[in-house]
Amino acid sequence: MGFRRRLRRQPPAPQAAPAPPPAPAGPPAALVLDALGRKCPIPIIMLAERIREVQLGQIIAVQADDVAARTDIPAWCRMKSQTFVREEALPQGGWAFHVRRDY
Amino acid sequence: MLLDEARARVAASLGVRPDELSFTTSGTQAVHLAVLGALAARRRAGRHLVVGAVEHSSVLHAAELHEREGGTVTAVPVDLHGRVDPAEFAAALRHDTALACLQSANHEVGTVQPVEEVAEACRAAGVPLFTDAAQSAGRMPLPAGWSLLAASAHKFGGPPGTGLLVVRKGTRWRSPLPADEREGGRVPGFPGVPAALATAAALEAHTAEFAADAPRLRELVDRIRARLPELVADVEIVGDPVRRLPHLVTFSFLYVEGEAIITELDRLGFEVSSGSSCTADTLRPSHVLEAMGVITHGNVRVSLPRGATTADVDRFLAVLPDTVSRLRKSAGVT
């Protein structure tokens, strides 16, 4: 039902902008990982292993369709001092989670 | 007669009047009757319901039913520790709010909620507050200020199949079920007298023993909270470090699948739980962990039994580093 979909904590937007534009914001991903069809924690294991392949300040994107990734990837970023940039719905289902490598 | 005695003893343990207390067939039934009965009685005031985002599923399921029947529901978010902000809760109350719900303490992460501050805001807004006290009844004194309360006997060592519903004097309540005169017109059918007596005895005993044991359990949990991050990399202890149930601690290991670690710890002789206690079979991540914004996998909840010792805790801490590193290796973490 309606309210249950709103229970999930919304990851804080890094830019306190009024109404984020619907079009993809920010720089494109330097590396895209395909974790579609993989259950958590596999998407964040892949993210943790490969984030060093992008330069500091660059974006790595993880595509995943396990709903747990919507919570786990922002939480991983918080624990690992990386920046969760945004979540983008994919046309084929699932999401692309954009993460900026900060250290 | 025996039922009156059981009621008087339970009421005395909880600090309520006997005529405010009804025995139900479970904690879940007590929650459903409290929420739906308060909403029914306040229908003229409005059909808006406010709930904390990390309430037990029995509260959320009652809220879903209310929403399906045309009511509206606002879920108040929680912080990283799983606690609602009283000001944010107060801001969710509207002129058409019929009822607000806030648990005494969270069932998955042990965080104690600011019930008294929220009750104050509810009183000012003229909105009754329902408190699900299943986690804290028999373990901590009840907070003040609520209008309706539910608890579950087996959570304090009483018989399964018995719950407690308290509706304070002056609180409007109307049965959402067909009329029945038992239990002050609040619960259908005659309560099981032996179960009610057993509930009274269990609540008295648990309240006394737990009060004596709580400081020790709190220290043991502090020991786990302090030692675990030193022993295992990439672990997050979740829940409020201070404002919490004394005996419960929850933590999550990055890169470890939830069920795998539960199975492994069980094999080593430790009975622990994971994720959402009541909806673990739905494949949905725990709504509590989601609402907090903490990782939802590799989650372990330890509920220390009365009499747990430092040696037990140390034995548990000793097996964790190896267990976690084995599971991480098998998941392909390098």
From TrEMBL, chain A:
It comes from Actinocorallia libanotica. Gene3D superfamilies: TusA-like domain. This is UPF0033 domain-containing protein. SUPFAM superfamilies: SirA-like. Residues 33-57 form the UPF0033 domain. Belongs to the sulfur carrier protein TusA family. It holds the Pfam family TusA. Residues 1-28 are annotated as: Disordered.
